[in-house]
Amino acid sequence: YYVGNLLIYTDDNENHIIDGQQRLTTLSLFLLGVFENLLKFEKKLDDTNKRLEVSEQMSDIRRYLLIDRKDVRLKLLDNDKNVWKNITLILNNEEPGGWKKYTLFKRYDYIRSHLIGQIDNLEELLEFQNKLSNVVLLEIAVPDLNDSYQVFASLNSKGLPLTPLDLLKNIYLSKGGEIEKCHELKSLFEKEDEIDDIKLRQFILNNYDGLENYDNAQSLTKGKIVKKYEKIFNEKKADYI
């Protein structure tokens, strides 16, 4: 089953997701929900062969979601990064805690309890997990971070526009920037654990117009924000912020 594109940019042997974060996050939440419900079935099974089958499926999910016992494959941003790492403690038979007020945990709890939790037949749950494990994502790699927004726009001309904020963050960090400053800026536009990307993007556009573009009557547009700020960071490095 094809679920969409995965647009990535590779830098220093690490894959940075430009578009597809929500798809990967949703699939990961579903897999984790399946794992937790398989764990409940496993405890009730008397059939040795069936217990072995369930155990193998759970091991597959661990492999999908973890690099090793402590390191998750999917690295999310900001608060979600810590919430996700905490939730995946379930994979090591540890109890997550302290994150229930956060949106990502609430979404996982809904998937676990109200969607997957409604599957009361083991065979149906195993079949569902098999379908999750066989979804198809088309991976598209771009060699230049500066081109990624244009690639996304051409692939998703009818969809919601991709905010370039994470691209700017990657450029800033690549120039020696401090992650704490990124968090500090985003926190100014945070309300109830959600970032208002529209206001944050407008602030960054206005910053350029007011401080860098005052001789030009034409305002900076969203489509050029990455290219213009990349030029600034190339010249001034992380000291710009």
From TrEMBL:
Protein name: DUF262 domain-containing protein
Sequence ranges assigned to domain GmrSD restriction endonucleases N-terminal in this UniProt record: 1-173
InterPro entries assigned: GmrSD_N
Organism field: Staphylococcus gallinarum
